[in-house]
Here is the input.
Amino acid sequence: MEAILNLLGEDELKTKIDGIKSQRKAVSEQKRKLTNEMRNEKRKQDRLVKKSAGLKTPDLLKVLRLREEKDRAKKAAAAALG
Here is the structure.
């Protein structure tokens, strides 16, 4: 270990260690954010499934039609811009 300290210099080694620690912290934070996003999406999906379970077929078809119209409007607006 002492040979490594002599070759790299104590300051360089501390700098590298600090860099690795900051990378580790950033990855940990990113993992936590992704985990929260996944959990929230799962909850959202569960709420939608629960809500849709009470709907009758005509209501579901109406929702699908509204979504299709909304998607078409978005695509038309995008085509007009670009």
Remarks:
- Residues 10-53 form the longest helix (44 residues).
- Helices lie at 2-8, 10-53, 57-81.
- The two ends are 61 Å apart (CA to CA).
